[in-house]
Design brief:
alpha/beta; four-stranded parallel sheet; three-stranded antiparallel sheet; 5 helices; 7 strands
């Protein structure tokens, strides 16, 4: 993501719409390394833009679940979920009252999509061609048809596209 105030505001609002975050180990460790040190209220490090602070505070405070078979501890307001308990855990969390769950990454969303456990997708399209990187939902066993529910354009040229799965005909 190309950082700017609008995109960080959008990301903060997205986190506010979730009761908890579900990350794989790699995304968890990457987010923790980037945001945990920045999350002290009013103690913004030099070089951190003021508009980044609300996101840092939001992600620091959020309940997190880390899906991993190798991580032995997680102390950033997180619980570890063994990979083989992923489906059971997510189904249980989805049954709880509240706003819902947020998942990020590449591998984990693919696994949850294959299990039919994603109610909404958001894709952030950036105005940059990288020419490399992971392919989203690579290896998905069957197509999932989606319906566009919202589109948000940012001054940077980025576009957030939100979709819901279309129910398959019985």
């Amino acid at each position: 993501m190309i950082p700017d105030a609008d995109l960080h505001r959008h990301a903060t609002e997205t986190l506010a719409r979730a009761d908890a975050l579900i990350f794989g180990r790699i995304v968890y460790e990457m987010m923790e390394a980037a945001w945990r040190p920045l999350a002290q209220p009013g103690a913004r490090p030099a070089g951190m833009a003021e508009w980044m602070e609300p996101f840092a505070l939001a992600i620091n405070a959020a309940k997190k679940y880390v899906v991993s078979n190798t991580l032995t501890q997680a102390d950033w307001n997180a619980d570890i979920v063994c990979g083989d308990l992923l489906e059971q855990t997510v189904r249980h969390l989805r049954q709880q009252p509240g706003k819902g769950l947020y998942v990020a990454g590449v591998t984990l969303p693919t696994a949850l999509a294959a299990m039919g456990l994603i109610d909404e997708y958001e894709f952030m399209v950036q105005p940059r061609l990288a020419g490399h990187g992971p392919t989203l939902f690579a290896g998905l066993s069957k197509p999932i048809d989606l319906r566009l529910v919202s589109r948000t354009e940012f001054a940077s040229g980025a576009v957030a596209l939100r979709y819901e799965p279309v129910a398959s005909p019985a």
